[in-house]
Amino acid sequence: MISSKVKNILTNFSLLVGVFVFCFILAEIMIRLFFPSPQSPNIFDEIIGYKYRPNSSVSFFVQGKEIKNKVNSTGFLDEEHNFQKLEGVYRIVFLGDSFTEATNVIREDTFPKILERELNQIYENRIEIINLGMNGFGTAHEYLTLKEYGLKFSPDLVILLFIENDLENNLVKFGSEINPAFDVVEGELLQIRTPRPLKGSGLRSF
């Protein structure tokens, strides 16, 4: 038979646990209301895996300095480009990862924009460069990006920037479900994994 003293201890302990749980839930509600988690800059893309939210802006901090660039309607860190190419314009599409995207500098200082300015001084403003680089991309992403987006711009030249870490990115076992993957099966290149949204907290965990 439980003594009254033990009952009081258990009652007080239960109240303490209840107060703790209540305070925890209240704190969680207050944090979500007044300090919401920042929205992920990325969205899921069923073809290439992910890209930026179209028509948004993305900020990166480099050595304590904020670098902000706008995202175009296609979902890449580049200025707006019409799919219809103007007569007399020579179009170049760049594909690559974060080196091509170059989030650590403003858009005008990325090497595709510098190249565009230099070429236009020679060819009288008839060169247009489209940057479809995206951080974390491997060759599988870039191949599908070219098919899904790049070719719609009717490019005259496509340049793929291949970095040594792309070798690892292209290995199926190192990729997550959100990344596409290809393999050579009986001499043919086949897509063996199509992008799927990440579980749990979604792209924020990515």
Describe the structure.
The strands form four sheets. This protein has a three-stranded parallel β-sheet with strand order 6-5-7, with helices on both faces. Helix content is 30%, strand content 22%. The model is unreliable at 201-206 (pLDDT under 50). A hairpin with a 2-residue loop joins strand 3 and strand 4 (65-70). By secondary structure, the chain is of the alpha/beta class.
DSSP summary, beta strand count: 9
Q: Ranges with pLDDT <50 over ≥5 residues? A: 201-206
- How much is the average pLDDT? 83
The N- and C-terminal alpha carbons lie at a distance of 55 Å
Strand order of the largest sheet: 6-5-7
Tell the overall outline. Answer: elongated
Structural class: alpha/beta
Radius of gyration of CA atoms, rounded to a whole number: 25 Å
List the total number of helices: 5
Could you give a short description of this structure?
With 206 residues, the chain is of the alpha/beta class.
Layout of strands and helices, then pairs:
Layout: H1 4-34, E1 42-45, E2 49-52, E3 57-62, E4 65-70, E5 90-95, H2 98-101, H3 111-122, E6 127-131, H4 139-148, E7 157-160, H5 166-169, E8 181-185, E9 188-193
Parallel strand pairs: 5-6, 5-7
Antiparallel strand pairs: 1-2, 3-4, 8-9
